[in-house]
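A note on notation is needed here, since sequence and fold are reported together in a single record. The reader may check this reading against the record printed directly beneath this paragraph.
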Amino acid sequence: MTTQKPQLIYASDYPDRLIRSINQAKKHIFIVETTFRTDDDKAKAIASALCDAKKRGVKISIGVDSFTYMEPDGFKLTILRQQSARVFQSFGLERQLIRAGINFKWLGRRTSFLMLGRTHAKWVVVDDEVYIFGGVNLDHESFNNVDYVFWLKDENLAKEVILEHKKILKAERIGGAFRSRSYKIDEKSTALFDGGFVANSIIYKRACTLAKAAKRIVFVSQYCPTGELSRIFRKKKTKMYFNHWRNASASNRLIISFGMMSSRHKTLYKRDKYLHGKLIIFEMENGEKVALSGSHNFMATSGLMGTREVAIETKDQEYISQLEDFIQKHVAL
């Protein structure tokens, strides 16, 4: 097994780093994303690198959530001229990758209700390298958000993520879900996988459990926390950084404003760039710190609707120090 120290990679640096890994790939590449579209030069370069890798004989499997492209104002099943630019870009990318021989699948098309069964997890596995435990998708907007992913070189973790990847594709064939689970990376860190069962998010449950035991909490997300976690935060010394509804897109404005009104939470986030990173750092009574970081926005509805997510729970200072540095440099003022 080959392991190296985790590295936090900022969203703006992610495309170049990912392309470098893809260009060096020898065996396989597995990608799950909420959005992937070729709407800028960096995203186009990622798609081209994937096609070149396939020509070298690299096995490639890609799953992209379909919900983003089926929004009422963005995906109309009537006539082509009504479809948005993002839909044309996504279909163009699909054709490009399939023509190259890449296994490309839309995720979530067999769910019984539009919002149920979303795949919100994000990862890229390139041989033994894993980009994971962050919120960056593969498009122009994502590369310019305040966000990050972690890079790890870990053969065993890569195998576990590939296993999860295959479970998602299998579940998609029947429109179902699978059991949420955890995987112990080492003595200090555990990967958490939400499998998509309604009202069964182990990530959200762990956030609530850790919050109850903490004396101080730092919360970062694009959305205001909701549900049980929100109520726990009110009883604790909690610093909360999330986007104010005025700084959000039209589709997110309603979600954030409802969360702020229902919880009465106020945000400390004052920067102009859109915040998309998702993490919580808990300081326990004994001074020990525990962090959660990944794709989960820590809203109760994500668990209630059976959204597939991924996160890391860690006591490892290698992760926590980088998360604290991210907050200091890019989130707090």
Observations:
- The domain at 181-331 is CATH 3.30.870.10 (Endonuclease; Chain A).
- The radius of gyration is 19 Å.
- Residues 80 and 88 are 9 Å apart (CA to CA).
- The chain has two domains: 4-174, 181-331.
